[in-house]
Amino acid sequence: MYCRKCGTQNDDNAHLCIKCGEVLQQIGGAGDPPVKIPNYLAQSILVTLFCCMPLGIPAIIFPLR
Question: What's the predicted TM-score (pTM) here?
Answer without folding.
Answer: 0.40
